[in-house]
Amino acid sequence: MRLIEVQDTKTRNAFHDVPKAIYADDKAWIPHLRQDIDKVFDRDKNRLFKKGGEAKRWLVQDDSGGWVGRVAAFVNPKYSGGMEQPTGGIGFFESTDDDAVANLLLDAAEDWLKAQGMEAADGPINFGEKDKYWGLLVDNFTALPSYGMNYNRPYYERFFRDRGYQTYFEQYIYGRPVQVDIQEPFERKRAQIEARGGFRVITARDLTHDQLAEHFCTVYNNAWGGHHGFAKMPLKQAQRTVKALKPVMDPDIIFFVLHGDKPVAFYVNIPELNQIFRHVHGNLNAIGKLKFLFHKWRKTSDIMVGLVFGIDREYHGHGLDGYLIDIAGKQIQAKGRYHSTTLTWIGDFNPKMIRIAENLGTERTRTYHTLRKLFDPDKPFKRVPIAK
Question: What is the rounded radius of gyration, in angstroms, for the C-alpha atoms of the chain?
């Protein structure tokens, strides 16, 4: 076997081809869009490179010339800066069921991270934000994976555990039918908030592009900004996020709570894009874009994905969770477009959001683990702190 660094068009294409062989007989697998992956490693498009980030990719080729594995390693100062020790990332890992292939790849990734001064590795994670390509799937390998979420073979966990990776935090995916009645506690909280006055719920349809980005940025930072591993979001990043969502956005399923004119909570949903992207076979080229537009017009996606739900920390305990969920849920039911909703993803470090999801009558449908390996085995391992 040969370890080969990704450096040219041939190896970049091979990086996209590796999963096709590994999942050839897997009906649940839907390939990530090659255009999305290319952006992660494009120095002109991924701003982390301009902020001191670095990344490397490798492939393994077997004796017959076939590509049997891939991996990426990256250093993200924004991510590492919130850790007790300099921590790099490993992601986009794929391998045949062969320990020799996996070890060759992970050796290369870990050795490179050590050479960059890293003292730990987290994986599988993204060279970017946590909303994509984050975590190792550890159960339910038959359900449709949500767009941007990792999917992997069950044996991948063995590769990481055997090398000393431990669970840094768990990530839970929840689901529920849309037409199930909203539970009474949420209706009660809504009534309490409405009796107090001063709050209202709007959708993205009521906002301009710039207002949507500003509201998203405000709530995100007041809900999570500064928590361990969650840096404050600059407005420009929120604007880029909204711009990226615009082609797939359904404005009727993006909700904000306003207290006066101040946004204090949000519930952001999009249609399940993998119901569409399964038809483009991982390539949003000219033909893929036509297929995408056709299925978007047909409203092929009848599953709604909850990307993020958050409440300004100053408003915790006010009952805004029930107020927002009751209003949003009933508006979505009235539209009748979606038959189910997926909540993705909630970390085990966020017990308040887990409680909200469970109180909604959801079922936990999938579990991911974000794993960490300390390169000094004598250093005590700590899990991610609980959000307060």
Answer: 21
pLDDT per residue over 11-65, tens digit each?
A: 999 999 999 999 999 999 999 999 999 999 999 999 999 999 999 999 999 999 9
Q: DSSP assignment of 233-290, as one string?
A: PPHHHHHHHHHHHGGG--GGGEEEEEETTEEEEEEEEEE-THHHHTTTTT--SHHHHH
Closest CA to 358 of 136, 146, 172: 172
Which residues have C-beta within 8 Å of that of residue 294, sequence separation ≥ 6? none
Residue 229 has pLDDT above 60, yes or no: no
Are the C-beta atoms of 196 and 319 separated by less than 8 Å? no
The residues pairing with 336 across neighbouring beta strands, listed in sequence order, are none
Q: Are residues 246 and 304 in the same domain?
A: yes
Task: Specify whether 134 is located in the same domain as 22.
Answer: yes
Q: Are residues 123 and 40 in the same domain?
A: yes
How many residues in the chain? 388
pTM of the model: 0.86
CATH of the domain at 165: 3.40.630.30
For 7, 72, 74, 294, the CA distances from 86, given in Å and listed in that order, are: 26, 18, 12, 46
